[in-house]
Amino acid sequence: MNYSRAALGKRIQKLRQKVGLTQEQLAEKAEISPKNIGEFERGRGNPTLSSLENLAVALGITMAELFDYEFEGLSVMELKKLVCDSINRTSGEDCKLYYRLLRVLTK
Predict the structure, then answer these.
(1) 27 with 39: CB under 8 angstroms?
(2) pLDDT digits (tens, 9 = 90+) for 29-64
(3) Would you give the DSSP letter of residue 90?
(4) Do 100 and 61 belong to one domain?
(5) Where would I find the beta strands (DSSP E) of the chain?
(6) Is 71 part of any domain?
């Protein structure tokens, strides 16, 4: 399975659940068959540009938001590793800034 399709599928599913729609309801709003919605969510479908535009409209988001799945599907450990790797590549001053930001964000 293609990572991008799998990540997009998970993103569609999470967005659909966030707005409280079933696959059938989303399919109706987006004028796409329920079978295709299921395929997309499983990362097996190959949505057309038109289908993606319809999904974005039905979910009340922009196309950019639909494709904002860079970290979708990553485990907590993988995310922590990305954060640590980013911090390790910084200068001393930037590292202090990261620490201050993390302190503020986690209070």
Answers:
(1) no
(2) 999 999 999 999 999 988 999 999 999 999 999 999
(3) S
(4) no
(5) none
(6) no
The 10s digit of each residue's pLDDT in 66-75 is 998 877 667 8
Predicted TM-score of the model (pTM): 0.69
Residues 32 and 82 placed together within one structural domain of the fold:
no
Query: Which CATH number is 51's domain given?
Result: 1.10.260.40
Which of the pair, 92 or 25, is modelled with greater confidence? 25
Are 22 and 58 found together in one domain?
yes
Q: Which domain holds residue 88?
A: 76-105
Rounded to an integer, what distance in angstroms lies between the CA atom of residue 55 and that of residue 2? 20
- SS3 state of residue 59: helix
What pLDDT sits at residue 2? 64
* Four-point Cα dihedral 48, 14, 10, 84, nearest 10: 130
